[in-house]
């Protein structure tokens, strides 16, 4: 009999095939045959094995395969936040793709902080993962050094190659945001405010802002520093930014926002100031999450291929792990979606 | 030199402390001392170790500890969907709590299908996790048998004990929904429609619907089968349900919805029918996610303690894993939040 201490140290030992064999009174080879090729085993034997499997809660242990192939059958993903549906849903698509291959997903969130991402990266690698999905391309050289030194397959979502040799699965944020700015100009707006996400350490926010400002400038609409507010991607920050942008004398007739959450916040801020959307103010978003069509009027926005990026990341990472060769990067298009929140400015 | 085949089979071998020692030209004991008590090592030695650590991408390997303690330093979580911010944010709180202890989070989504949850449960257990977080109490006896046979600590979130001996960390869905119904009645509504989530296999949806119908019945408002629609928790289903409930002759003056997503969908449906909220129709939600204050008018709803449930699940599971003893269950209150979407019915 084992001592108490020993028992306490092993409370969660997984039942093994030996345990099943012992309980069923058969050999481990018979257990294995009974599970893998049941029609080659007599019914009584099969039943005995089945009962033992259920009683012990035994499941064929992938752990053994891990040791054999040096694989953990785990993919890690580090996303900025689960609070925004856009990442949560991409993560879900990734997980569903991996589940088809019995690969499980480890998840961490970095709160948009590159240094936190790096800590999580080290933890995941120390723990052992077969591959890693990250958001965006902007991070320290050290983070990339860690990844390449470990030779771990990794995919960068939401961005395009940008001269990096890595596997990217994304879309052109600059171009998509430029398209929004172009449409806003087409409707006749000239006094325009921008509510951007924080651009530090975030290549997607930087690219969107660049797309907006360069398009406006090319049309002769030059934004002053007071016309652009950078803030966190929350309703509250979007609302506060809108109130600030709309409080001046020569207030904007359109607000271009870095994502749908900021745009929904901006709409709330505008409503509180008694402004009518789109009669008094046009507002645009980015992402096309549920929120975009839940608000009224519905948001003009950009449809980000979040599910496709999540699913493709799973497929390409598994392909890389299997073949040992880095697959081709993927670039999706992000579609402009016109809805009622964008209209011509009222004359005056 | 290794053969190609050998190299191919081991592309992702984690660098070991021996590799670092070899490269730095010191003993493994010196590497260990250099990492753990750097002030006890000469600067040149420390630098040499540092260079080797960086070059190899070495991180102190938790794997060794896993074997020693039979722990995987992993907690699994199976939630219905990441599409709804309420679960995603709870998951994030859980992950942040676990990260403080260098425990990582494995994630799977069941799409509200108990049989899919059971498959994921088996996969996670086969893979090896120290504990598991699940949503709700309603699942097959077999699923509970698997969990208890394995002696894996597990926590059930979002529900209260309900006579089960398991660790639950939740709130009283029946009571919270009953409170919403009571407030709707107080405002003078008598013609009331209910848009519920699917109740099959979902104890939370069942409890909320029970809380609503029993409160209404106690006040003499008896719902017919045509007054209650069960649907999936999506904007589209909420909208379709509202259109159906509002299309009859004696249409409801209030719609009580199973969550905020359904309520936002119902508001959209009402708007399309030309109804004004709350003048023509009151709408209530449940959860108090961002969506609730992004829509206009803002939703009367119930604030679900999602972050606290996520964080507490992490704490209690780690406590259980450490002590070997199942901790006490936790019951939080869910607060009624009054906002502009609820008002008296217009006379007529």
UniProtKB/TrEMBL annotation, chains A, B:
GO terms for MF: DNA binding
TM spans (from-to): none
Organism, scientific name: Paracoccus maritimus
Keywords, sorted A to Z: DNA-binding, Transcription, Transcription regulation
InterPro entries xrefs: HTH_LacI, LacI/GalR-like_sensor, Lambda_DNA-bd_dom_sf, Peripla_BP_I
Keyword set includes Transcription: yes
Name this protein carries in UniProt: LacI family DNA-binding transcriptional regulator
Ranges where the HTH lacI-type domain occurs: 15-69
